[in-house]
Amino acid sequence: MITASPRRVRRTGQAGAAYGLLWVFLLLNLAIVELMLAHPATPAHNTLTTIGRVLGLHLAFVMALQLLLIARLPFLDRRIGPDKLTQWHRWTGFALFWLVLLHPTFVLLGYSQPGRIPILSEIPVLARQMPVLLGMIAAGLIGVVAVTSVRAARKRVPYEVWHAIHLLVYVVVGLGVIHQVYEGSAFKTNNFTQAYWWGLWAFAIGALLTGRLLLPLARNLRHRLRVAAVVAESGDVVSVHVTGRNLHKLHARAGQFFLWRFPGHNRWWQANPWSLSAAPDGRSLRLTAKAIGRTSAGLRELPVGTRVFAEGPYGAFTAVARTRQDTLLIAGGIGITPIRALFEDETLSGDIVVLYRVRTPADAVLLGELRNLAGLRHARLHVLTGRTSADNRPFSPEGLRGLVPDITERDVFVCGPAPMTTEVLRSLKALRVPARQRHAELFRLAA
């Protein structure tokens, strides 16, 4: 087959602009916070309480930043993507956890120092003050969320349970705001600092309410999604076809995902991130899921006509991210769903190669559709089977170069189990495929 010579695709620079905006916002606000600390409204009792105050103000700022990162605002989500935003979320989460530990510790040390009172004895004394007690409760809840977010715990907790626990964040926000109203002093220097501080929090809470509540509600009222069909793809994989009104106005793209809820069939807090497994056509949406948890296993029993509540579309794993004319699509297991949708996307022009990694041919979901698309698009489809071993490592640098000799001249989209995706990304780096040509969907979704 004659393939088109590698050509560059004009980059939009959207991701760079979004990153730049994030950094400007972060640095500018940090500078203002430091200026506020230089001129507090009231002096601290001693050096230890001064440190506690500094840590407390930074704690409140990091919490406001965290709200913006989990707000899922379309501007950031479609340019940076949930995976990268979740990395920021994890970094700020670590900072939040340590600030929650250190802020009250230094405050307690500061109050116990003059009378040489044991620090543990100071806790019940301060807890009698309602604003301080609310702060203590918020700190405890943050600890619960942090513990369940550790990778070792996260692997053992079902997604639905993890998601429900993370709803405690909203309780923490409420308690934190009340605590600041009564205990804040660094931002009460003058009217300007108070206006700035509460403006920052109003912006963060407003962004959260808009992205997580108002926008999804408006979209679902507008589109009125319903289950149109449920199709078993294999013994443990099912596709759900969803219809609604004016779906073209959702502006969904192949490669994106939604958070899906099925009110009446599942509890309201059971939301799962499933990718579109077919390119959206403006008339219907299709998700395909493997029976891993209780919610995904229950999809097979969904009655036709069931109401659907979908948040999204989310993600930057789309053809918009391309920088080259030719494309390599790599999938493992059920990670084929966004790859299959991308394969159908007509904006993905040029020569296309698809690598699909499964244990056995019987595990290759949607294989018939992939073969039909390969024929229509004059693309190459390789189904890679067998256990990974010294003699069967298709995603090693040598394996990838053997399958796709011109890999450095292509954009590479990869989605699959975390170990496979990590291996592919490591091999791409070893092969010196530029970072701007490497695109991965890991579903590292913030709460």
TrEMBL record:
<keyword id="KW-0560">Oxidoreductase</keyword>
<keyword id="KW-0274">FAD</keyword>
<dbReference type="GO" id="GO:0016491">
    <property type="term" value="F:oxidoreductase activity"/>
</dbReference>
<feature type="transmembrane region" description="Helical">
    <location>
        <begin position="51"/>
        <end position="70"/>
    </location>
</feature>
<dbReference type="GO" id="GO:0051537">
    <property type="term" value="F:2 iron, 2 sulfur cluster binding"/>
</dbReference>
<feature type="transmembrane region" description="Helical">
    <location>
        <begin position="164"/>
        <end position="182"/>
    </location>
</feature>
<dbReference type="InterPro" id="IPR039261">
    <property type="entry name" value="FNR_nucleotide-bd"/>
</dbReference>
<feature type="domain" description="FAD-binding FR-type">
    <location>
        <begin position="220"/>
        <end position="320"/>
    </location>
</feature>
<keyword id="KW-0285">Flavoprotein</keyword>
<feature type="transmembrane region" description="Helical">
    <location>
        <begin position="91"/>
        <end position="112"/>
    </location>
</feature>
<keyword id="KW-0001">2Fe-2S</keyword>
<keyword id="KW-0472">Membrane</keyword>
<dbReference type="GO" id="GO:0050660">
    <property type="term" value="F:flavin adenine dinucleotide binding"/>
</dbReference>
<dbReference type="Pfam" id="PF01794">
    <property type="entry name" value="Ferric_reduct"/>
</dbReference>
<dbReference type="InterPro" id="IPR017938">
    <property type="entry name" value="Riboflavin_synthase-like_b-brl"/>
</dbReference>
<dbReference type="InterPro" id="IPR017927">
    <property type="entry name" value="FAD-bd_FR_type"/>
</dbReference>
<dbReference type="InterPro" id="IPR050415">
    <property type="entry name" value="MRET"/>
</dbReference>
<feature type="transmembrane region" description="Helical">
    <location>
        <begin position="194"/>
        <end position="215"/>
    </location>
</feature>
<dbReference type="Pfam" id="PF00175">
    <property type="entry name" value="NAD_binding_1"/>
</dbReference>
<dbReference type="InterPro" id="IPR013130">
    <property type="entry name" value="Fe3_Rdtase_TM_dom"/>
</dbReference>
<dbReference type="InterPro" id="IPR001433">
    <property type="entry name" value="OxRdtase_FAD/NAD-bd"/>
</dbReference>
<keyword id="KW-0411">Iron-sulfur</keyword>
<protein>
    <submittedName>
        <fullName>Putative ferric reductase</fullName>
    </submittedName>
</protein>
<keyword id="KW-0408">Iron</keyword>
<feature type="transmembrane region" description="Helical">
    <location>
        <begin position="132"/>
        <end position="152"/>
    </location>
</feature>
<dbReference type="GO" id="GO:0016020">
    <property type="term" value="C:membrane"/>
</dbReference>
<keyword id="KW-0479">Metal-binding</keyword>
<keyword id="KW-0812">Transmembrane</keyword>
<feature type="transmembrane region" description="Helical">
    <location>
        <begin position="21"/>
        <end position="39"/>
    </location>
</feature>
<dbReference type="GO" id="GO:0046872">
    <property type="term" value="F:metal ion binding"/>
</dbReference>
<keyword id="KW-1133">Transmembrane helix</keyword>
